[in-house]
User: Fold this.
Amino acid sequence: MKGQQTLSTMKKDTQIISAGRSKKWAPNTVNPGVTRASTVVFHNTDELKHATQNRGDKVMFYGRRGTDTTFAFQEAISEIEGYAGTAVYPCGTAAITGALLSFLKAGDHLLMVDTVYEPTRDFCDKMLANLGVTTTYYDPLIGAGIEELVQQNTKVIFTESPGSITMEVQDIPSIVAVAKKHNIITMLDNTWGTAVNFDASGFGIDVCVQAATKYVVGHSDVMLGTASTTEALWPTLREQSYLLGYCVSPDDIYLAARGLRTMSVRLKQHQQAALKIAKWIEARPEVDHLRHPAFPSNPGHEFFKRDFNGSNGLFSFVLNCGNRAAVNAMVNGMKYFKMGYSWGGFESLIMPTHDVNAIRSIKNWQADGPLIRLHIGLEDVEDLIADLAAGFERFNQALAD
Ligand SMILES: *Cc1c(COP(=O)(O)O)cnc(C)c1O
Assistant:
């Protein structure tokens, strides 16, 4: 494992199986149960007082603050991520907005990676701007150079590595070092890395966000977000997120906790299949280069090698020719790869992007052909390659027509 080792001697795979399943949460069963509640009832004033005083510390008080189902899951994620506490949100986007709103106020400045997930960008431009928070977008490969962008009022540096769609890997340790020097809070959208492949807490990230919708849930049927943080920041994150009214149904939490137990084995399979398919794609004559962090053609590949434990099923590639009609011919006839935005489930996905510069502030994207993002699911690799091969044939046919 890369990053700082935790004190626990337990390996990550064992943690993923055992975290949040103590006798307190699951006295007689393997999995903690589903406790649904709006009202939590108290039988006397002592109970009422106890719940009120401990409502931030895994004691049931009111449904919005969660039930035992929530607390067990929060404990599991905190332990696996190596943080003091975890807030849960109805989706990954809510976790990002909740984390940002918990620590930013009018007059503050935010440094946001330019390759950020598009809804995060929209939140900065369309909502934080109205609240008096200014945002500067920085190059994902800026590294220690980010110090030049630090202002007197810079409160948060937000990272997402690899970047959305184009997959640039950031030099997180250099950015964290600058942030610590200037007393700035660092946040990471670690949805691609997950706790298995990128040790955010070990690298000194203050707030680590997961779109649990993706690999934690793993079955494309639940929306969920988590934000985990340090002892110092946990009371603020917890209470500010609570004030915003974010809460999650115990049924969704249950499904996420269930998905979590197989996350590591699923990731290994996604990774292995994606590496095979990426190699095959790289050799195709229509392909200019891969955007897969584990391949040298990916910007920031050296940071991936240095800092990550592995990859997963999500990567992109850039075509060296082609137009919308040819790409449409390719993606419209796929047998196994469906089009869909939310990845991380067991199924394969394909998604074309024609204008990368439209979703960037630094408009330096240059490519002769469109970009295609794939999520490699758990199907047989040979079937997936055959599907892609037929897709390339349709692409070439459309170009020739
Ligand atoms: C999907 C995703 C999100 C948002 O998660 P939702 O649960 O869909 O709101 C945020 N960040 C990244 C990197 C994502 O892939």
User: Anything to note?
Assistant: The pocket of pyridoxal-5'-phosphate is lined by residues 91-93, 117, 160, 164, 189, 191, 211, 213-214, 223, 225, 342 (CB under 6 Å). The chain has a mean pLDDT of 96. The chain has two domains: 12-260, 263-400.
